[in-house]
Amino acid sequence: MSLYELERDGKAQELIRLLRESDNERVKTRAAELLGNFDDHDDRRDVVNALVDAAQSDSDAITGAAIDSLDELGDDAITQLIGSMAGVDLEDDAADWVKAKAYMQVLDADVPELRMAAANGLGNLDQADAVPKLAERFEDPDPRVRARAARSAGKIGDSRATTPLENVLTDPKAAVRREGADALGNIGNRQALQALLPLYEDDDERVRRIAVGGFGNFGNDRPVDYLIEALSDESAAVRRTAVYSLIELLSNVPTDQSHQIRDTVVEKLSNTDDRSVVVPLVEILEESTQAAQRRNTAWMLGRVTSQEERDRVIESLVDALGEDDQMLRQFAATSLAELGDDDNMVERRLLKIVQDDDVDPEIRGQAIFTLGKVGGERSRKTLDKLIDETEHDVIRKKAFSAISKLGGRG
């Protein structure tokens, strides 16, 4: 029976026997690889014990396969391996600091796969004291270890990792730079974010995307110029990320700064020929669950939309008028007014809302307000009639205000 058939038929004990007793290194390596698929097996404990033993063999190939399989089996399996190597009995209820101490000891192991496993494990433990030890691995000869150490430092999020991570950003391996950029974005202090700025023009697309994604965490307008530059990136993914970061930035800065930054963003966007920003803005408005993001997006759409995307933007903003968020409705209304209505599309859509008695009066009132900005003779006549027929004071008041801007009652 082949090794594949043993794995397919769930013959864990037979694979364990081959791992322990075979004289063929390739067979033992393959057995170790396949045992990583036995997470739900009744013999899982035996599987883990066998892989822990194999991970400490003299063969790099067998060791690597065993560690990968233990990683597949979960944190408890890796923890058992680390405890065995460190000479510590790490029970399931062992304190995190005890586990972290054992993991840090194994970070100095000769086998890179073991250092990788230790780095991974530390990322799952919220132990800030592990950061200096992880930082030592940022210069590990194996790029896989460097990448995992950077990732784990970012997960822990301790600011002591910031300066060492800055050096990771110049690593010759793009995968390591990506992890370093992501880690700095997670830490998110001023120094960390500042270090990300030059990466908007890194050679690797994913590095650029990760860096640009971190710019939205700033609490000031420092990254605006970089984000505007990123809107012209050759990668569509980077451009879309830049749009999301611009909106996130507006949501994060203090209120007294957000107006100025919004004006700066609109000015910058008005001077660029790249109009691909509108589609992701519409997606944010339609799909985001963050109120501040949706409000800023609704405001922005009225100022950066070109004629080519106008129809879709109007539909999205009109739909936003029906939301529960009053401020979002206001921003959507003002943006519809900003877009104008040369083709009467906005007027037609809003009149449907205004004339629908089943629509909430507050929403109808918002639509009436907008008609006062963009409506024509048809709107004036509809509102004139509505004033006499409506039973809602809110709607009547809004209609009086709007019709005065459209030439008054007939």
UniProtKB/TrEMBL annotation:
This is Phycocyanin alpha phycocyanobilin lyase-like protein. It holds the Pfam family HEAT_2. The keyword Lyase applies. One of its GO terms (molecular function) is oxidoreductase activity. It comes from the Archaea. InterPro entries: ARM-like (IPR011989), ARM-type_fold (IPR016024), PBS_lyase_HEAT (IPR004155). Keywords: Lyase. PANTHER family: DEOXYHYPUSINE HYDROXYLASE, PBS LYASE HEAT-LIKE PROTEIN. The keyword tRNA-binding does not apply.
